[in-house]
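step: validate -> pass
step: tokenize input -> pass
step: predict -> running
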Amino acid sequence: MSGGLRAFQIYYDAKTRAALDPEFEPLDNSANERRDWYEYWPMRKYLLEQPLDEAARYGFLSPRFYEKTHITGGRVKEFVRGCGDADVITFSPHPCFAACFVNVFEQADFFYRGLYPASVRFFGRIDPSVRLDRLVTDSRNTVFCNYFFAKPAFWRAWMGILERLFEETESATSPLHELLGWEIPYQNDDGITRPAGSKIFVMERAVSFLLAASPGYTVRNFPPFEFPVMRPFAGRIGELMALDELKIAYSATGDPHYLETFIRNRDRTIESVWPEAPPRLFSKGAWGEAA
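step: predict -> pass
step: emit ->
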């Protein structure tokens, strides 16, 4: 039957296979031919090799979906059924990270310094008209961990970006080869910290870039503040929601006062939660100076 939901959950071995949500379809990555590409490899293989039903929505979730979201496959399907004909449906975890940064690229660079220049160089090749130092992402278009479901048309646009990333990274002659390949310590789904290429962190932000830069898609979001937040943000959901609302107001009106207020308030929030944290890219008048 055409239409419906194809909700895949990736597994790597017998342990992750046994832990999958029974409401999701298992997607085998036990061969793990390209460990360096993490979940993109089984997603890429499926999207390149399998025919897609234009009326269906597809999603590819990691084994840690429940750990990061605290929602079951049954609840995912229930929410999707109520989303009408939306092109994209998001289940983005970590609402504290989405709320506290101007955009997902600032957030990446905050934790892994150097990712912002890599993102600017790469996404500048995708769409030179979109400046990351002027892009604001909020709960409506932020997606972490690639936790989203979409129709094939959106996946094709996403794959267009990711295949360009693949080409730039794999080609030793590309001027972005080294920039996208430098390694960052990263704890993956088996709980072990291994080096991950910067390409993985750029890859994860492609969906947010596409949603923020291409407003023609219809999007429904599972309520982001129902997801768990980091321990330092416990009891501060109202503060996080207020930050998100300021970004939404800025995006809707273009009024710089909303963004200035957001930056001032979030600076106080971050400094209280991470007092030893590095500087933000866009902070205290520095909006737009990082590019």
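step: describe -> The mean pLDDT is 93.
step: cleanup -> pass
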